[in-house]
Amino acid sequence: KNGQTTRQESRQASSAPKTEPSLTKRKLIVKDTTRCLKKIDSLEKASKKELAQVIYDLKAKYLLKDLIDALPISMSTYQYWQNRFEHPDEDEEELKAVIKGLFNYYQAEYGVRRLSTQIRDYYRLIGKKTPNHKRIQRLMHEMGLKCIKYNRRVRKYDSSKGPNGKKAKNKLNRRFLSNRKYQKMVCDITELKAHDGRKVYLEIIKDLATNQLLTWSISQHPNLQFALDPLQQLLKQLPHTGYQLTLHTDQGWHYQHRAWRKLLRQGNIRQSMSHRATCLDNAACETVFSKLKAEIGPDTSYRNQEELSQAINEWIHFYNERRIQTKLGNQTPLQYEQNLVA
């Protein structure tokens, strides 16, 4: 009887589900998977490709069946991705190389939209099918290529501190669109500081039809003559247009000065001014300064005023002649101007 009882107990023990070892193994697999997916909070947020990559890496440590049972992925899905890992798509590898090459060529200044245009132009040039921008975006995300230069905060120069003069009304009223060169122009001043602590000031006059920087001035001191130089250069190159010209600025003291207003009258240019402390009224100029400070790098990385001034000059020529803009149909301001005239 005792022997029969012992046999029954052994049969019951063998037929009972062995939950403890399997639960422990599942926990270990989930723990290792979570450690591999450091940037993802939970397994549910992981993509099938990411889960398949983890399984592919953990196959030497666990049985494949246990990995599939523990993770939210089917065997057929894993086998699909395994085949992709072992036999990568040659066209996609080529596209990745092109993306990385152009991203580095433009010094990480181009995001998905502008880089996609350059990549498609390259594929048209070599006679191949152009890739979709969503595919380019996905591959850039997978390779960790992201333009972060515009995340840096920069200080703003306040040109309103100075002698008061005559203010003008806001004639532009944020109507920044134009199809005629010189019809609408904007002007502003910004400040940069070199590594030695000395400051450099830049003033630009921008045309709103072509987005071209018509004239500019770089100086070590924000005096009146510095502000008048770009306007004097503009008057020398200004043709007879036959329509009303408008130059919009903020309420800086230079633009309230009688010398500035006198030059505007000589060129038959209507004066327009932003409202007080409203930078959006002159956003067309502010965006140029934002791009400049992001793309030349930190101003304090330049040793002195001469190096910083040279970098600004080179960037302005790059902006006008080689930097494409999506608002201009992926053309440079110079190309857009030539097509506008034609």
UniProtKB/TrEMBL annotation:
InterPro entries: HTH-like_dom (IPR025948), Integrase_cat-core (IPR001584), RNaseH-like_sf (IPR012337), RNaseH_sf (IPR036397), Transpos_IS3 (IPR048020), Transposase_IS3/IS150/IS904 (IPR050900). GO terms for molecular function: nucleic acid binding. Residues 1-24 are annotated as: Disordered. Residues 1-17 have a biased composition (Polar residues). Residues 177-341 form the Integrase catalytic domain. GO terms for biological process: DNA integration. NCBIfam families: transpos_IS3. Involved in the transposition of the insertion sequence. This is IS3 family transposase. The lineage of its organism: Bacteria, Bacillati, Bacillota, Bacilli, Lactobacillales.
